[in-house]
User: Which sequence fits this backbone?
């Protein structure tokens, strides 16, 4: 239905109708001429979403606070992307846990540079102490944020491409991302701990 979210209302159920890579006015999910596969990966485990505040890491918070002194980290396990794949587009989906429409919140999205990142543990700096692909970082200025609405990150295809092109990547490995705060505002999203059905998806 062109709203940027994969749901039962889409022209091609299970595919985002906004995606039309070859610009032939046929959504990619329905385009038999386009050899593409859309993969949707949820946060599978309680310790696969976490946040860090001044080095202190928590894996069991009910909300993920994007921006304002918090670094949010997400790990998506069992990613079905084969070696040699070309990433056409990639987004991370969040569901708003609390409305906020003031000054935008700002984060920098980076991909972890491990070929198979580990889950998070409550050890100091377990998020910011990891290595990331800084060269493909993407800034996200998050504007209006309304309760229970779904929002997509900017296109992170270059970040994911770097991750799957590295030595050691294999189909079924994990991908992990950091949302590094650099503003003084925040946006609250559901974590897996609060509601698995509304937790982030890749």
Assistant:
């Amino acid at each position: 239905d062109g709203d940027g979210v994969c749901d039962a209302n889409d022209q091609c159920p299970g595919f985002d109708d906004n995606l039309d890579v070859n610009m032939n006015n046929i959504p990619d999910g329905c385009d038999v001429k386009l050899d593409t596969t859309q993969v949707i990966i949820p946060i599978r485990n309680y310790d696969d979403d976490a946040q860090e505040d001044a080095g202190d890491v928590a894996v069991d918070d009910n909300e993920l606070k994007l921006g304002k002194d918090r670094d949010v980290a997400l790990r998506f396990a069992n990613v079905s992307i084969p070696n040699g794949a070309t990433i056409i587009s990639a987004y991370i989906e969040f569901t708003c846990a609390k409305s906020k429409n003031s000054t935008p919140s700002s984060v920098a999205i980076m991909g972890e540079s491990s070929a198979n990142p580990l889950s998070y543990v409550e050890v100091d700096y377990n998020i910011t102490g990891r290595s990331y692909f800084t060269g493909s970082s993407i800034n996200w200025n998050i504007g209006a944020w309304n309760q229970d609405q779904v929002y997509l990150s900017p296109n992170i295809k270059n970040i994911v491409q770097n991750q799957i092109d590295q030595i050691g990547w294999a189909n079924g490995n994990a991908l992990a991302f950091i949302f590094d705060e650099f503003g003084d505002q925040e946006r609250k999203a559901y974590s897996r701990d609060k509601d698995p059905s509304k937790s982030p998806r890749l």
